[in-house]
Amino acid sequence: MFNKRTKIKQLLNEASIGKETTVMGWVRTFRNNQFIALNDGSTNNNLQIVVELGLADEATLKRITTGASIKATGVLVESLGKGQKVELKATAIEILGDCDPEKYPLQPKKHSLEFLREIAHLRFRTNTFGAVFRVRHALAFAVHQFFNQKGFVYLHTPIITASDAEGAGEMFQVTTLPLNNLPKQSNGTIDFSDDFFGKATNLTVSGQLEGELGATAFSEIYTFGPTFRAENSNTARHLAEFWMIEPEMAFNDLEDNMNLAEEFIKYIIGYALKNNSEDIEFLDARLKEEEKSLPQDKRSEFGLIEKLEFVLNNAFERITYTEAIDILLNSSHYKKKKFKYEVSWGIDMQSEHERYLVEKHFKRPVIVTDYPKDIKAFYMRQNDDGKTVAAMDILAPGIGEIVGGSQREERLEKLETRMKEMHIPAEEMNWYLDTRRFGSVPHAGFGLGFERMVLFVTGMTNIRDVIPFARTPKNCEF
Predict the structure, then answer these.
(1) Which of 225, 243, 217, 222 is nearest to 147 (CA)?
(2) Which is nearest to 171 in space by CA: 211, 226, 231?
């Protein structure tokens, strides 16, 4: 029975000398026809299997190659060699799956991240990606634990939707109509009457609007699911398919929203540090090694663990958008024309502006509030100045924006006026406006891009390396 196996992580932690046990995993290396380094994905640490002379015949020994899967039974003994406290003295070896060493691309040597992206179906077997995806799992678990402990309801919002939460228009369309012969109406527009849903539909860019419906019944909900943006952005920070965490809270204002977001970020980082210390220590060492080849001014000011602990132990800086623009305009960076993009009140700050505020000026995460209404979505609560909205973004070192949120506009008349200004058809959003017609309440929420959080916690620099199968322009493998 396969389930009698012991995971390598458990075996190394317990180190029960003299215990007979069975392990299964993939061969990392096989030295001198005697020492197998075995890994089963539960940890980056390998278990050394000692194959004594005569235990296996020549044909079996030849099949023990890098990448092959094996079952080994034996007794755990203290190791005489360096690098491990215990090893398994094998009494039986069984080959479960062969691996041709001439064709297997993951040989025991260092591979570039670019190369590993080309074989994303195998990269999980490397130490780097083993660590990254175990940390990703821990962060996802911590998300649910945080909200569950606070009494939030986990709401599954639709992936296929007829609404555009951001008004961005950069959406993937969903249709069953024949693309080579689209039916047209007399005015030349597409006739959706025979389409599956009878109307134009898209993959969601956000579960927020539906989340607000839940918040006005349960008080506090959160969503955690895939979202899609059809942006032709081939950068290290953008994906076409990514995961979003979006809490919505009734009876919350902008300050409540900021407080929750800061507490949430600290909670999930703290969980990963506590429960995945081994993986984060590995990624910390990896980052230091990677940065040795960079010029001094391009290196991180903190090591990975230092950065994460700094975030945990310090309050986030809070400034208004107007104050942020003033800081940028008065910076030596701006005066020396080092910014690629312009700086003036009313701009949608670029990543370089956000990172300057976080990494150069404040040297800590920053929450920027009260953005110009013209660069923000229709649902954000309008401030009394008539120019800004009660929005907030959290900016993180190395990434820029990691959270975007706002207090929502709960006043029906103001919301309808804003929708008219932004040409959002009220009749199609009647269901949404009902939340303002029937028992409207002050409420707020935010969205956190999960992959950006994983980037931050793992110290990886390309977002394609923190999602199992990246969906990017001209790339949809697997």
Answers:
(1) 222
(2) 231
